[in-house]
């Protein structure tokens, strides 16, 4: 009689599921391989860490500016959060549409590119920014490290 356990401890299906697809023998390749991007170097998919640091830099810069504006315009302190969000959205929209990177992305050595090689432009930058501001789409990533906001705009964040 077998209890469904292997010698390694726990049912096989649980170990595979908890360990991910690679432990089941699936070859998923490296992030960006399906998109035709290199594994390392310029134009390779940027890692989570640099993207997160860039986000904190961008948000921090907007927070500093909104703090000054809140005092200068004599706004209520609770309005600072909304102003920070608006500045972050405006910064993301304008800089992504024009140069393909924000201040934080530039400092972290990453940029946003369209996968078809065309410029991002204002329409796709708007789509990407609105989904980024909604937060949840940006948290749902695929194996190429692209959030739903990147997938909707057909973009990827790559190394410079």
From TrEMBL:
<dbReference type="InterPro" id="IPR051791">
    <property type="entry name" value="Pra-immunoreactive"/>
</dbReference>
<dbReference type="Pfam" id="PF06271">
    <property type="entry name" value="RDD"/>
</dbReference>
<dbReference type="InterPro" id="IPR010432">
    <property type="entry name" value="RDD"/>
</dbReference>
<keyword id="KW-1133">Transmembrane helix</keyword>
<feature type="domain" description="RDD">
    <location>
        <begin position="46"/>
        <end position="154"/>
    </location>
</feature>
<keyword id="KW-1003">Cell membrane</keyword>
<dbReference type="GO" id="GO:0005886">
    <property type="term" value="C:plasma membrane"/>
</dbReference>
<feature type="transmembrane region" description="Helical">
    <location>
        <begin position="82"/>
        <end position="103"/>
    </location>
</feature>
<feature type="transmembrane region" description="Helical">
    <location>
        <begin position="123"/>
        <end position="141"/>
    </location>
</feature>
<feature type="transmembrane region" description="Helical">
    <location>
        <begin position="52"/>
        <end position="70"/>
    </location>
</feature>
<keyword id="KW-0812">Transmembrane</keyword>
<keyword id="KW-0472">Membrane</keyword>
<dbReference type="InterPro" id="IPR016795">
    <property type="entry name" value="UCP021697"/>
</dbReference>
<protein>
    <submittedName>
        <fullName>RDD domain containing protein</fullName>
    </submittedName>
</protein>
């Amino acid at each position: 009689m077998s209890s469904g356990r292997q010698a390694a401890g726990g049912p096989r299906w649980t170990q595979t599921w908890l360990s991910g697809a690679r432990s089941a023998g699936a070859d998923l390749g490296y992030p960006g391989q399906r998109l035709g991007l290199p594994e390392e170097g310029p134009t390779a998919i940027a890692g989570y860490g640099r993207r997160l640091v860039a986000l904190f830099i961008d948000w921090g810069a907007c927070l500093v500016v909104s703090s000054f504006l809140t005092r200068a315009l004599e706004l209520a302190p609770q309005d600072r959060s909304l102003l920070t969000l608006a500045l972050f959205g405006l910064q993301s929209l304008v800089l992504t549409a024009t140069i393909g990177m924000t201040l934080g992305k530039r400092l972290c050595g990453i940029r946003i590119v369209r996968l078809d090689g065309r410029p991002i432009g204002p329409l796709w930058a708007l789509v990407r920014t609105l989904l980024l501001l909604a937060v949840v789409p940006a948290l749902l990533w695929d194996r190429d490290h692209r959030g739903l906001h990147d997938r909707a705009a057909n973009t990827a964040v790559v190394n410079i």
